[in-house]
């Protein structure tokens, strides 16, 4: 009991800004620059956001136990803000995999969101792995701990839990508020509280890596509440985002492919992407025009409708007949 009390005392006395090294179990595969190589504030905190990447962390996703809904949610979030989501990766709860992926993504993309691996159990190693990726240390984030105590509801299976009494349960909870810390960056920029009724912080590492929980309802709420913090750094600060037009066509993909190939080459310099999507088991397929210039997209619609014998729709099944599911057409 005395050793646990000493441990708890050290936890409580350690503020976000003092030092405690992560506990490496082996040498990383890659060498990363440490905090001494950085300047304050880190340029990634103010760099315009054009591109994004998503890192889904969890054995349960790769093992088929859990279906990932967080990356599709992030994809829609980015689309609506005009951010190009360039990459989504799913990796296991493995330290070296996390270190390699997050370091690579941080170097290549403006806005990196991780999901999963920040709970209280032994396999929740995201914080410590990301800290090691950037040669940082873990610190107890006292404001997060205080919010946890205030906003967390006691679990019915832990009726005797006490925040002031050392216990394995308390030690596990403390794991969730020990965050990567860079002494060269102001502490308030490294942990964001975006919702008043949530104690979970969004840890920010290297200026562009945002660490979120894997629980979908938490991931979604935190991401939505993060929007005001990143909007000023968007190419379009007004948040008009990207526009997608859909044209429903009765023609098979093979029939519209030659025209769409020419169209894609013509509009690519304008930042427009042309897509073609088969709808198996349906009578109609979908052609899409995606871009930031809504007026230019509007100017293309009539031409596309004529060349694919289609019609612009607001949802893919808008022109589907009731018995459509009974018919399967080749592409």
TrEMBL record:
InterPro entries: FLAD1_M (IPR056596), MoaB/Mog-like_dom_sf (IPR036425), MoaB/Mog_dom (IPR001453). GO terms for molecular function: FAD diphosphatase activity. It comes from the Eukaryota. Coiled coil: none annotated. SUPFAM superfamilies: Molybdenum cofactor biosynthesis proteins. Residues 53-233 form the MoaB/Mog domain. This is MoaB/Mog domain-containing protein. GO terms for biological process: flavin-containing compound metabolic process. It comes from Penicillium cinerascens. CDD domains: cinA (cd00885). Residues 14-43, 308-331 are annotated as: Disordered. Residues 18-28 have a biased composition (Low complexity). Transmembrane segments: none annotated. Pfam families: FLAD1_M, MoCF_biosynth. PANTHER family: MOLYBDOPTERIN BINDING DOMAIN PROTEIN (AFU_ORTHOLOGUE AFUA_5G11210). Gene3D superfamilies: MoaB/Mog-like domain (3.40.980.10). SMART domains: MoCF_biosynth.
């Amino acid at each position: 009991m005395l050793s646990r009390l000493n441990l708890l005392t050290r936890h409580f006395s350690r503020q976000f800004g003092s030092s405690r090294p992560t506990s490496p179990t082996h040498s990383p595969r890659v060498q990363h620059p440490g905090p001494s190589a950085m300047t304050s504030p880190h340029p990634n905190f103010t760099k315009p956001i054009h591109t994004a990447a998503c890192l889904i962390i969890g054995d349960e996703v790769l093992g088929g136990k859990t279906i990932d809904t967080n990356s599709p949610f992030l994809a829609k979030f980015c689309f609506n803000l005009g951010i190009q989501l360039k990459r989504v990766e799913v990796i296991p709860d493995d330290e070296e995999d996390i270190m390699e992926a997050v370091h690579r993504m941080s170097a290549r993309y403006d806005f990196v969101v991780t999901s999963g691996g920040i709970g209280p159990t032994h396999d929740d190693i995201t914080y410590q792995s990301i800290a090691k990726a950037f040669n940082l240390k873990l610190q107890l984030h006292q404001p997060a701990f205080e919010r946890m105590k205030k906003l967390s509801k006691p679990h019915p299976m832990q009726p005797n839990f006490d925040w002031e009494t050392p216990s394995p349960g308390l030690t596990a909870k403390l794991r969730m508020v020990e965050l990567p810390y860079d002494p060269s960056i102001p502490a308030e920029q490294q942990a964001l509280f975006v919702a008043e009724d949530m104690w979970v912080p969004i840890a920010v590492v290297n200026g562009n890596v945002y660490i979120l929980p894997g629980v979908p309802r938490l991931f979604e709420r935190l991401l939505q509440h993060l929007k005001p913090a990143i909007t000023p750094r968007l190419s379009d600060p007004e948040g008009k985002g990207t526009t997608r037009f859909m044209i429903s066509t009765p023609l098979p993909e093979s029939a519209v492919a030659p025209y769409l190939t020419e169209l894609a080459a013509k509009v690519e310099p304008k930042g427009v992407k042309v897509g073609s999507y088969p709808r198996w088991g349906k009578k109609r397929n979908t052609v899409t025009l995606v871009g930031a210039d809504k007026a230019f997209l509007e100017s293309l619609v009539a031409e596309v409708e004529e060349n694919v014998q289609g019609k612009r729709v607001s949802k893919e099944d808008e022109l589907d007949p009731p018995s459509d599911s009974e018919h399967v057409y080749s592409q």
